[in-house]
Design brief:
Blueprint: H1 2-7, E1 13-18, E2 21-27, H2 28-52, H3 56-76, H4 87-92, H5 94-113, H6 116-123, H7 126-137, H8 145-163, H9 170-196, H10 201-223, H11 225-230, H12 244-270, H13 273-282, H14 284-294, H15 301-314, H16 340-347, H17 349-355
Antiparallel strand pairs: 1-2
């Protein structure tokens, strides 16, 4: 991950504010490295937990509850500050929380049905989608030639992996497609939501996990998973076996989920949506190494080689700068490839100008993004 970290703009800074005092300043490199370490291990323990305890949504509920409990406890003891959680912010975070839960749920089901390498290979294609979203809606320029070559390499690696994948089935690939859709939704909504509501990363993580609890519980009730869990059964009706490995993996996933949530919010502040997705892809380098050696339920050497090639290509991606005069999402400058009259008609920009909506241009005073 060092190569990718160095390619990021090192002029960006995130200030974690406690009260009126700046506690610490994080650089992009610190944030991305921490996110990589935690994220890579979270993927492994999630895979172990959902393989031993086949209750994906129930595992997510436990993770959401644990995150809220740990962050809430830290707030009570004065270790962190959770603030600005109002009716307005609660409502504003609902779309992000729905997309966030959809992303995690789809990912857990992919891990349940297929090897971790299948999840990594499909996840690696998300930067391509995000580079288009960044250009159309988030005010960034198109990727440079080096980044385009990086994404072409990622795509070729994913195709090569799927061509030799014998452990996954059509249902696994369908879940992967659902995962990619939710990943694009979550990444795009997250960037706008984070910029729109001024909160620190602890508050955002707490609120998003809090809203996700009833969503996950509702789906688990609808699918009958909670009924199985109440009978100490997995989703197939088989008796659960709480082995030491299963309990350890579940406990680690709950703890790592907190760190992942906080650092993901920090990194979304600092980087573009595409760069965040590339970091999420490259951090699976450690996941793949650990996954390959700890058990036999992994892809062949052919598949592992494809995954390493994907990660290698991702390390050369460079974040696209904001276009001149852009600060992020703006209805007046979205879809620059289309004629303005068409954009104005589709998104009602003219009426927006008359109303004077303050959400047209989004600024974040705690972020300094360089072009």
């Amino acid at each position: 991950m060092t190569c990718f970290s160095r390619s990021l703009s090192m002029q960006s800074r995130i200030r974690c504010v406690r009260g009126k005092h700046v506690v610490r300043v994080y650089t992009d490199k610190h944030i991305s490295n921490s996110d990589c370490i935690i994220g890579s291990q979270l993927s492994v323990v999630n895979k172990l937990a959902v393989s031993d305890l086949m209750l994906p949504n129930t595992i997510l509920i436990l993770q959401f509850v644990s995150c809220c409990a740990l962050l809430g406890g830290a707030h009570m003891f004065g270790l962190i500050q959770i603030s600005n959680i109002t009716r307005e912010t609660f409502a504003g975070f609902i779309p992000l929380s729905v997309a966030f839960f959809g992303l995690l749920s789809a990912g857990m089901w992919v891990m349940k049905e297929a090897p971790l390498e299948t999840f990594i290979a499909f996840k690696s294609t998300t930067p391509i989608c995000f580079s288009i979203i960044d250009y159309l809606f988030l005010g960034r320029a198109l990727p440079r030639a080096k980044s385009i070559m990086s994404m072409i390499g990622i795509t070729l690696g994913a195709i090569y992996y799927v061509n030799g994948d014998v452990l996954s089935n059509a249902a696994s690939y369908a879940l992967c497609v659902v995962f990619i859709i939710f990943a694009c939704l979550e990444g795009t909504i997250a960037k706008d939501t984070i910029n729109r509501y001024k909160m620190n990363s602890f508050s955002r993580t707490f609120l998003m996990n809090l809203i996700s609890i009833p969503i996950a519980t509702g789906l688990a009730l609808f699918t009958g998973e909670l009924s199985h869990a109440g009978k100490i059964e997995d989703v197939h009706g088989n008796a659960l076996v709480f082995s030491n490995r299963a309990v350890f993996a579940l406990s680690c996933s709950c703890v790592f989920g907190v760190g992942m949530g906080v650092f993901t919010m920090l990194i979304r502040d600092a980087l573009s949506a595409t760069s965040v997705s590339v970091v999420a892809t490259c951090n699976k380098f450690l996941s793949e190494i650990v996954n390959y050696f700890i058990w036999s339920n992994h892809a062949s050497l052919h598949g592992a080689g494809a995954v390493f090639f994907i990660i290698f290509c991702g390390a050369f991606y460079e974040q696209s700068p904001l276009r001149k005069g852009e600060v992020g999402f703006s209805k007046r400058s979205m879809c620059p490839c289309l004629p303005r009259y068409m954009v104005n008609k589709i998104f009602h920009v003219d009426s927006l100008a008359r109303v004077g909506n303050v959400s047209d241009g989004i600024h974040d005073g705690n972020i300094e993004l360089s072009n």
